[in-house]
Amino acid sequence: MQPVRVARPPGDKPGPPIGDPLIVTEQVAVARGIAEIDHACSDRLISTAVCGLVGWIAPGSYGLLELDEGARPGLLTGYEITVTLDGDAYTIDTMLTMETEDEG
User: Fold this and answer.
1) Coil, strand, or helix at residue 41?
2) What confidence tens digit (pLDDT) does each residue in 32-62 have?
3) What does DSSP say about strands 62-67 and 89-101: parallel, antiparallel, or unpaired?
4) pLDDT > 90 fraction of the chain, expressed in percent and rounded
5) Where is the stretch described as Disordered (predicted)?
6) Dihedral sign (CA 67, 73, 75, 81)
7) What angle do CA 53, 77, 72 make, to 5 degrees?
């Protein structure tokens, strides 16, 4: 297979070379290259927020994350519900993990 070069905007962060015998088509090579760049080479911030119970939100969904400096669009990468028991009382919290672009 010929090497495939993948660049994501703005194109100034090349991904690492990838050699994998399971990559047998150009489409798979491009998808793998994009995933590697997104994972290792992009300007992303991982932010978490804990709030009261929130109904199910599928990871991979896009939405707005409200931060101290304002709302920012992001990708939901994690969703966790925690139930804490204290005698007869309980609390339910939701932890959301979002990936947003670094604006710094």
Assistant:
1) coil
2) 877 777 766 656 778 888 888 888 887 778 7
3) unpaired
4) 13
5) 1-20
6) positive
7) 80
